[in-house]
Each structure stands twice: as C-alpha cells, then as structure tokens.
Predict the 3D structure of the following.
Amino acid sequence: MPVTVRFAPSPTGNIHIGNARTALFNWLFAMKNGGNFVQRFDDTDVARSKQEYADAILYDLHWLGIFQDATEYQSRRFDIYGEAVEKLKRAGQLYACYETPEELDLRRKIRRTRGLPPVYGREALQFSHAQIAEYEADGRKPHWRFLLPNFRNDPFDTERTEVGWTDLVRGEETVDLASLSDPILIREDGTFLYTLPSVADDIDMNITHVIRGDDHVTNTAVQIALFRALGAEPPAFGHHNLLTASTGEALSKRTGALSIASLRESGLEPMTVASLAVLTGTSENVVAASSMTELAKRFDLATASKSAAKFDPEDLNALNRDLLRQMPFSEARDRLSAWGILGDQAEPFWLAVRGNLDRLADATVWWRIVKQGPEAAPELSEDDTEYVRKAFDMLPPEPWDGGTFKVWIDEVKEQTGRKGKMLFAPIRLVLTGQDSGPELADLLPLLGREGIRARRP
Ligand code: GLU
C-alpha cells in the first residue's frame, strides 16, 4: 500500500505555526516516502466550522509549499460514519446511555470515595426495557458509547488489556484499556465526537501513517481498538512534540497569535516559517532550509524530542536574514521584477544587497537609494564635506567592476591620509544616506560615475 498521510484540522480558525508543524511533518514524511498527502477537514462540528477557514487553511498550506493530493470534508461523509455505527451496533460494541452529566458526575464522586478509579461503570448496559422506555418518554435522548474490549466474557469484570504501538517519534507506548472509560462516540443530539469519523476516514482513505501532535497520544489506544472493531489493521502512529512560545504557553487557533497569515503578512519567507516549525524541538540545528527538498534532508520523525518544542518568535527574523543572504537571484527575480527591480542591474543589485535585508521587500528601499540617492542630503561636517568632494574628484574612469572601489579608495587614502572609519564612513553616508549597508565595492558599479557625481556634496 502506498504511504498515505493526512493533515486533519478543524476549520474553526486560522492555522498557526504549531499546526503548520503537524502539516509539515506529514508533508515531509510523504515526500521522503513517495507518498500521498490527504487534506482532511474535520468539520463535523457544523456550527463552528466555516468554509472560509478551510479555504484560508489551504491558502496557508500552499504558501508554505504543501500541496495536497486530495481534499476531503468530513461533513460530506456522514454515510461512511453511519455504516461504521451500524457495524459496531451489530457487533454489540456500541451501546445507548441515558445518564445526564449530573448523574455521571455523582457516580464518579461515589466511585472516588470508594477508592475506585473514576471510569464509567457501564451501568447503561443493565438498563431494563422499562427503564429505557421511561427515559424515552421523559424525552431523554441517548448518547452512545464504544464498549472497549477490556474483558473476557463479562463487561463488568474488566481485566488488564494492554494496547501497544511503536510510536514513530516516542518509541514503545502501551495503554491499559481497563483504565479507560468507554468513550462516547455519538452525542445526545446525534452529532459525532471526533473519534469515530477520524477512524472511519483513516480506514476508508487507506491512511498508512497518522502523524499528529502528542496531545493525541491518549486517544490512540481507543482508536486502535476501534480500528480493530471495524475490522481494520491500525495504521502506524507518530506523535510529535508541540510547538510552544518560549514562555511554555500553548499556541491557540483562536487568538490568531503566530498565525501563518500574520507571519506571511509580516513579510517572512515561507521557508523561514517552515524551517523553524519543523526543526525546533528536534536534535537538528534550527537553520533556514532553502527548499522543501533541503528541509526533507534534515527531517526525521525520530529526532523530535519528547518535551515541548519551545521557540522564540525573534528567531524567525534571524532565520529570514540567513535565508535571504543565501537566496540566488533566480529565486528572487520574479518578486523583484514585480516591484520594478529589473534590467541588467537587477542581478548584481540583488547580489549586493541580499546580505542586508530583514525582509525581501527591503530590497525596494535599497533600489531607490541606488537609483535615486538618499532620501535627504546627509549632514556632514565641513571637514567631511571637503574630504568627500576631494575623493569624488579622484574617481577613476569607467568601465567599473568589483575591483574599482579598492583602486579608488587606496588612492583616496594616500592623497588624504585618512584611515579606517574616517576614510569610509563619510563616503558611505553620502552615497547611501545610511551608516551601514551593502559593500561599497558592490555598490560602486551600480551607481556608476555619473550616479556618484550627482551625489557630490
Ligand atoms: N481534528 C483533529 C485535530 O485537529 C485531528 C487529530 C488527528 O490528527 O487525528 O486535533
């Protein structure tokens, strides 16, 4: 069976960088194994799910460089879940419960005072027909529980039943099914909780690897039991550590903090965001990978650590600078040309400025400086003004290349006796209006003799 993974968010908000970590882990895993990536929207909660969020999630994934092989919506697949329900009911593995939350709460308290674990005691299995008829007459609707296979013959006589899996990230995991309550699969109002649709879909979509956050580890044993109850072999599971802010605080879809949309709008490169989302909290160094192929080379599920992956959003800025510093012109060309940075000078310009950018769009600032000069005439002392005039009079004849600056400045040094900062700073200031920036040796050929003379103080 070909490797098939899925990313299964609920479309109830914008995805943040932590959600992107899950999507990317799946995507890179599929990439490395020649597999398929299914985009599945867990939108059974129709009140909170919105198509506009699903669309925004797809937009974010595509921006990051994730392209799905198939898109599925759970809200369009209720037939499949209905079939699974029938199958479980026929096998006696799904049973109706009529207790109210208050009744359940009271029972839990009683169990606790008796020193029993606060799991559901399966009382509903003993309801008589008359009792059920009475509940129904009262207008109570049942919720439905999955009868966990944690007993031999008598469901009231549970026994230790270990369900284990070799987690692709965490190694061997086992859970005793006797320590869990029979999970509710269907609510009183007939709506599904996440468990059954997820498993039914994983079966129907031939999902081979479920890769998700470690907040789902505790669901896994129940899901494995459900796969088997539905007659399917469970897939492999991998639970990665969650990305948290440096304070340790969990990221939330609701607050919009560190949403992919906000990171995109702040001008960061997609590979900056992807690199940080994937490499933080692994044994790999967090560096800016220039492409998904590069990132895939550094990615291995087994290198993710078991504790939270803390990160500082400030790191995004440093990574972005690194990424831009290495970005070849071919990759920047289209965006530069959309900003009017084109022609013969576009490439040497890019190579000159790329090491000085926080964001790609900062290139437009430097383009303006190169083409039109500093925004305002820089303030210079009389001494420096004299010095710069003198230096400009010494400009060598064209054509100019990368070596011209050295020839010129050596001459200026000799003639004026200036050294170090005194030698360079006033020239840089007059040419660019800035104290720092691209190498003057690279800027000189871009400015040209005329361009420089036009800046003469
Ligand atoms: N909709 C679930 C979530 O967003 C999916 C979990 C899973 O991958 O199984 O947490």
Q: What stands out?
A: The longest strand covers residues 36-41. The longest helix spans residues 17-32. The mean pLDDT is 95.
